[in-house]
Amino acid sequence: MATFEFKLPDLGEGVAEGELVKWHVKEGDLVKEDQVLCEVMTDKATVTVPTPHAGRVVKTHGREGDMAKVHQLLVTMELEGSAPAAQAPASHGAPAAPASSPAQAAAPAAPASATKVLATPVTRRMAREHGLDLAEISGSGPQGRVTKADVVAALEGGSGAPKKNEVAAAPAPQAARPAAPLAAGKGDERIALRGLRKKIAEKMVRSKFTMPHFAFVEEVDATDLVALRTRLNSQLAAAGDGTKLTYLPFIVKATIAAMKKFPHLNANFDEASQELVVRGEYNIGIAVATPDGLTVAVVRNADQLTLGELAKEISRLSVAARDRKLKMEELTGGTFTITSLGQSGGLFATPILNHPEVGILGVHKLKKRPAVKNDQVVVRDMMNLSLSCDHRVIDGDVAASFVYEIIKYLEAPDLLFLAMA
């Protein structure tokens, strides 16, 4: 009998664990080499985990929604061409500390202690940044796991763990206690936060809690932009080019042109060192709506792409996001994000920052509206832009000037060609 124990491989970039989002196989299935076994959601991306060997699945370890650590047993397999595996291999002799499911592997014999506290890397980092001791926080997650919500509750209530080396005579924390469950009502449906939806929730809480947001909104007369886009698309169609320009490539180019005058918007904030890191590359995140939730795909070195190349890359990334096929490098390293709901964009909104970026631009509905031009009321193609910023490093006058610089290029889009490197 040739039994193979497949463990969760290294997921890269210091990722230590991930959530088992979906199993693609079940016990007894025959699998081919490189066939996908499961999907695992990390703090950075959803990745598919393939098997390196062909064979039969004897046992899957862990349920959907469980956390699995890197190098933890995922699947026990009987390799192709080997004799059938015994039905109860664990009963032969003394147990040799068989690997368990992610939930079992993470479960301590007693509640989390000062030496072994269950928490994700992001939760640990968040607690460390605020001087909290996780051992002093009551975990509300499975097996006493301390969640980011627990850390937030401790901080908001001012009753979290005392800082290390600090003598605290205060009463036991109250705010860090698990929230009381909501009472059930007739016809209720409970939907667990899992996978991408859960990661979105965690990231939004962190962003709103750690970054003081403010927003600036202004309207754009996009009449000339509409005319230019229509003209260029007609020329592309006549040339037999399959490329179709949306408004996003123009907005990306206008944003980059403005960033060159206001470089502090093309930046990340380093929480550990409390430094603004002004990036040398223009890696623009594009928010994409998927069936699982909003995903930000990153167009790398967007300043080096033509309008046509930008259109193709944005389209490719959008399709990959909806098909769950984005690579890790297509989800990380963003320096600024643009989010647009197209014709569903409404009048304006105040987007939440994509941590650790310090700015996010919301693009809203483009429609014909009355406007005053040369003291005359005329019908123009109008839309609104809303910029959210991290007020720790970006002041209101800088944000306003940045938006007006973008508007300058969108209202006179021919200037974009002069600004392109």
Can you put this structure into words, describing what you see?
By secondary structure, this protein is of the alpha+beta class. Among the domains are: 83 residues, Beta Barrel (OB fold (Dihydrolipoamide Acetyltransferase, E2P)); 210 residues, 2-Layer Sandwich (Chloramphenicol Acetyltransferase), CATH 3.30.559. Helices cover 25% and strands 25% of the residues. It is built from 9 helices and 17 strands. The strands form 4 sheets. Strands 9, 12, 13, 14, 15, 16 and 17 form a 7-stranded mixed sheet that branches. Strands 1-8-6-3 form a 4-stranded antiparallel sheet, with no helix packed on it. It has a 4-stranded antiparallel sheet with strand order 5-4-2-7. Helix 6 crosses helix 7. The longest helix is centred in the middle third of the chain and has 16 residues. The radius of gyration is 26 Å and the shape is globular. The N and C termini lie far apart (64 Å). About 12% of the residues have low confidence.
The average pLDDT score comes to 81
Shape: globular
Largest sheet: 7 strands, mixed
Oligomer designation: single chain
The CATH topology of the domain at 210-419 is what?
Chloramphenicol Acetyltransferase
* Number of separate helices: 9
The number of distinct β-strands equals 17
CATH architecture of the domain at 210-419: 2-Layer Sandwich
* CATH top level label of the domain at 210-419: Alpha Beta
Structural class: alpha+beta
Strand/helix succession: EEEEEEEEHHHHEHHEEEEHEEEEHH
